[in-house]
UniProtKB/TrEMBL annotation:
Binds 1 zinc ion. Keywords: Hydrolase, Metal-binding, Multifunctional enzyme, NADP, Oxidoreductase, Riboflavin biosynthesis, Zinc. Its EC number is 3.5.4.26, 1.1.1.193. In the N-terminal section; belongs to the cytidine and deoxycytidylate deaminase family. In the C-terminal section; belongs to the HTP reductase family. GO terms for biological process: riboflavin biosynthetic process. This is Riboflavin biosynthesis protein RibD. The active site is at E54 (proton donor). InterPro entries: APOBEC/CMP_deaminase_Zn-bd, CMP_dCMP_dom, Cytidine_deaminase-like, DHFR-like_dom_sf, Eubact_RibD, RibD_C, RibDG_C, Riboflavin_Biosynth_HTPR.
Length: 363
């Protein structure tokens, strides 16, 4: 029986993943309806504000939903939001049993959804492939359980560990296939964060090309407000948040006229903007996931501050020589002080290799 339950839950998890980058601040959810060992309906949460996975599966099954078992990757919601409670739809459909992979960490649900179903006489079960379901929604779970966004660091570097030349040139270290994967990672995040040197040197748009129209918060760390007012970065209609330590009110007002939000925060003991303040401000703005894209100082300081949860490191088959490395400002004296990723997965993209893993102590 356990094997069969895992089989159907695995299908539900696969469906849920189709909503990656499209449903935040909601979680990715997939649902499968099974009757007499056969799938009679399935669905997933396509976009924020659209029907939830449970409702999609019920509509797909039609009359066959009555008497079926629902496999769902997250506890069904029990409150009115953008859509009515999924628990109401489940009760109306006559579903006899609901198997959820895990309980919803959102305090508005957190066990109440399953209790609501049990009160209606519906059998419930929790825990089938729970770890996989939580990992799929790791940003959502981090946001509600640890009250902070999930922080991902993406870097592209050479065989000798360089992120850019001495003059700051970094476009492009890796090839087309790796760049495509990097775009995918960007579009899965709620916010993308860079340092002002990246904006000055590369003048990137930092938009999401994989999911046109996605609202992506673009964050710049700019201690002294050096960002150019005529940059491409400020020219596109996507939200911008600038963190600074500068008291330059004139520049601040000009940036605000361009549509940017400017927040003044304190520096840390190293003279850099405080990561604690940055993360707290992003959490307050309901940002669940942040992708740090550079440059060298920002990436290194984030690692040194211990705020990074997961790393995606693209390594090109190139040797650059002296340039800007990932280890700027980091001075461990022993191997035991090294930042370790675990578990690790390697993927080849043409001549580039992606190493991804969780920072030990944050996994």
């Amino acid at each position: 029986m356990q094997v069969q339950e895992e089989h159907f839950m695995r299908i539900a998890i696969g469906l849920a993943a189709k909503g990656n980058g499209l449903v935040s601040p909601n979680p990715m959810v997939g649902a499968v309806l099974v009757k007499q060992g056969r799938i009679v309906g399935q669905g997933y949460h396509h976009r924020f504000g659209w029907a939830h996975a449970e409702v999609e599966a019920i509509h797909d099954a039609g009359k066959a939903a009555r008497g079926s078992t629902m496999y769902v990757t997250l506890e069904p919601c029990c409150f009115y939001g953008k859509t009515p409670p999924c628990t109401d739809a489940i009760k109306r459909a006559g579903i006899k049993k609901v198997i959820a992979a895990t309980i919803d960490p959102n305090p508005r649900v957190h066990g109440e959804g399953m209790r609501c179903l049990r009160k209606a006489g519906i059998e419930t079960m929790v825990g089938i492939l729970g770890k996989a379901a939580r990992q799929l929604n790791e940003a959502y779970f981090t946001y509600y359980k640890e009250l902070r966004p999930f922080i991902v660091l993406k870097v592209a570097l050479t065989l000798d560990g360089m992120l850019a030349t001495r003059d700051g040139e970094s476009q492009w270290i890796t090839g087309r296939l790796a760049l495509g994967k990097a775009q995918e990672l960007r579009c899965q995040a709620d916010a993308v964060l860079v340092g002002v040197n990246t904006v000055l040197n590369d003048d990137p748009r930092l938009n999401c090309r994989v999911i046109p129209g996605k609202k992506l918060l673009r964050v710049v760390l700019d201690s002294d407000l050096r960002i150019r007012l005529d940059s491409r970065f400020l020219s596109i209609k996507q939200p911008v948040l600038v963190f600074t330590a500068s008291k330059n009110r004139t520049k601040t007002q000009k940036l605000e006229k361009k549509g940017a939000e400017v927040i003044r925060i304190a520096r840390d003991r190293n003279g850099l903007l405080s990561w604690d303040r940055i993360i707290a401000a992003l959490y307050q703005r309901q940002i669940q996931s942040v992708l740090i894209e550079g440059g060298a100082i920002v990436a290194s300081s984030a690692l040194e501050a211990g705020v990074v949860d997961k790393v995606y490191a693209f390594q090109a088959a190139k040797v650059l020589g002296p340039g800007k490395s990932l280890s700027i400002g980091m001075k461990p004296r022993r191997l035991s002080q090294a930042i370790v990723l675990k578990p690790v997965r390697h993927t080849v993209f043409g001549s580039d290799v992606l190493t991804e893993g969780y920072v030990m102590g944050r996994e």
